[in-house]
Amino acid sequence: MTTLGAWRKSSYSSFGDGDSCVEIADHRARVAVRDSKDPAYGTLTFPTVAFAPFVESVKSPTRKATSAP
Fold it and tell me: Is pLDDT of 47 > 60?
């Protein structure tokens, strides 16, 4: 198992919304994301090359909500 680096508040977190923070930890091959107010709940991990496109898609104003099947 690969050990991730230290967790830190993501620069993509909203500073004005105290409850909407995410933390990230990186390693040369993976980036992990978790909710800062409930870190034990779960973690998403991405290949390093996929993290920036993921963030851009979340920030996109044209992103549409989809419903689960």
Answer: yes
**β pairing state of 30-35 and 22-26:** antiparallel
Q: What is the per-residue pLDDT for 40?
A: 86
Terminal CA-to-CA distance of the chain, rounded, Å? 33
Average pLDDT over residues 8-27: 72
State the pLDDT confidence band at 19, using cuts at 50, 70 and 90. Answer: low
DSSP letters for 8-61? EE-TTS-TT-TT--EEEEE-SSEEEEEETT-TTS--EEEEHHHHHHHHHHHH-T
| Whether 36 contacts 23, CB under 8 Å | yes
Phi, psi of 60 (to 5 degrees): -65, 130
- Asked whether 30 and 48 are in contact (CB, 8 A), the reply is yes
